[in-house]
Amino acid sequence: MKKILILILIFSSCNVTKNLNVIGGSKADAVVEMAYEYSWPNKVSLSWEGAEDKAINTCIEWGYRSAKRFESPKRDCINQGEKGCLSWRVTWQYQCIE
To answer: Per-residue pLDDT tens for 10-40?
Structure first.
């Protein structure tokens, strides 16, 4: 019965579109951090629209010319349940370029 409930939850999960938002970074290290959060069992579609502009604008405010996204994100559990993680934060870093 539990397996059937889990399968129903997995197949009935929502597809959610997320946008990246600036959450921090370091002017000295020339790195902008952008992230989104999601919860199980949602499936995430990431909207890249505006993300690069946000990173570039932050870098420009810091005195740099542009920004380039690192290839891989970091995923951290932000809500641990009894049987695993229930919510995650996915963080992308952008390198400011002179």
So the answer is: 455 678 889 899 999 999 999 999 999 999 8
